[in-house]
Design a protein that fits this description.
By secondary structure, the chain is an alpha/beta fold. Strands 1-2-3-4-5-6-7-8-9 form a 9-stranded mixed beta sheet, covered by helices on one side. Helix 10 links the parallel strand 8 and strand 9. Helices cover 31% and strands 16% of the residues. The two termini are 42 Å apart. The chain is globular.
Length: 334
Amino acid sequence: MTSSAWEAFAESLDLPRYRGRQIFDALHRRAAKGYDEMRELPRDLRLRLAGEIPLRFPEIVRRVDSADRSSKYGLKLSDGALIEAVFMPGERNQADVNEFEDARVAESPRSEVRSPKPSPETVSKSRIAKHQSPIPFTVCLSSQTGCAVDCVFCVTGRLGGGRNLTAGEILGQLHVVLADAGRSTEGLRVVFMGMGEPFLNPGGVLPALDVLFEILSPRRVTVSTSGITPAFSVFGAQARRPNLAVSINASDEQTRTRLMPINATYPLAGLVAAMRLWPLESRRRITVEYVLIEGINDSPEDAARLAKLLAGIPVKVNVIPLNEDPVYLPGWKR
């Protein structure tokens, strides 16, 4: 629930509206893990809330740490469904994650080296750094327990459709990842690029965005879609909109249908037309995601067609290396 929804809920309990704001702030600004930590609330109210609307968070059942210090979490929901979320650290000027290195074959996690005693100059620089903005980092969230879009290069597509996540389950991922990583929302960026197609779950994603936008700028949140064209108007009509990322991966209809069967339902031409209509604020661009697959969509002719296709749209093309998999993608090369 948003802060205003919590305030309305407090009123329904014959409580002052500010009690709802206190609960929202404790949850989403202070990351309280339970009502017992909300000491600003009367004890009787804490007990009542715990009994009537208990807080449930996903359970971490697996965590895989990469050499680049990113972590992939396997999370179990209350009904036993399994989803994934990812924590990705960053540096001041660029992401620390190197997407061109396959984390599965990295030799070993980064070793911790004890630093020598800092010099006076280093201490001075450290004091200056304290006044700089925090180093950004990213948390990648899932929106469904599977994915019905079935892009051929995506392992999640092999799982099938699954179900939509609720707004609470989406936000719960963020809570447990931040807690495990020992981070607050300072420097946080959120991307909906995990399991599932966000544009097929507006009932969960849009309310989750409403909550996120109370603690983060919309410019720090990105929603990715494979191109569910009718949903563009739904998400684009919101008063506050996230950054938009569109997974295109081909510059012609035939190749895109081969890679992304959803293209047969929502063709590339209609998708690009929807992108042209997307309301962009000043200094914002649409991110175009393009996975390079050897011999399929990586020719100079493909690049020229893509440039022509997107001409006139403020875009940034993010070229992504294929994550090779001998089981799910035999013979495919990055």
